[in-house]
Design brief:
The protein has 112 residues and is mainly beta. 0% of the residues lie in helices and 53% in strands.
């Protein structure tokens, strides 16, 4: 199983970015499992950002609630993360996760 994330980049504070992660090489029903976005800022531990459950439920870390939106396309096996009102503290490498599989990460840099 491979997870490939894209959409990172550099943006000014207040701006938006959309991350996308596609699952490839699977041999099971991906839609039966939750998918998550994590992030890891320099010098900090990796933290959970958002979850999209198998049943369509979503949950967010308090720091991003109201600014980030996670969504899944079951048919395409993708999970996106729409990030609005970005702040410098959102600067991190963002990773998508499915079960014990991780994508390589995509860097988001927010300048003040």
């Amino acid at each position: 199983v491979q997870l490939q994330a894209s959409g990172g980049g550099r943006v000014q504070a207040g701006g938006s970015l959309r991350l996308s992660c596609v699952v490839r090489g699977y041999t099971f029903d991906v839609s039966s499992y939750a998918m998550r976005w994590f992030r890891q800022a320099p010098g900090k531990e990796r933290e959970l950002v958002a979850v999209a459950g198998a049943g369509g439920n979503t949950d967010y870390a308090p720091a991003v609630k109201g600014r980030f939106t996670i969504s899944r396309d079951i048919a395409e096996n993708t999970v996106d993360l729409q990030m609005n009102s970005l702040q410098p503290e959102d600067t991190a490498v963002y990773y998508c996760q499915l079960l014990n599989f991780w994508g390589p990460g995509t860097l988001v840099t927010v300048s003040s």
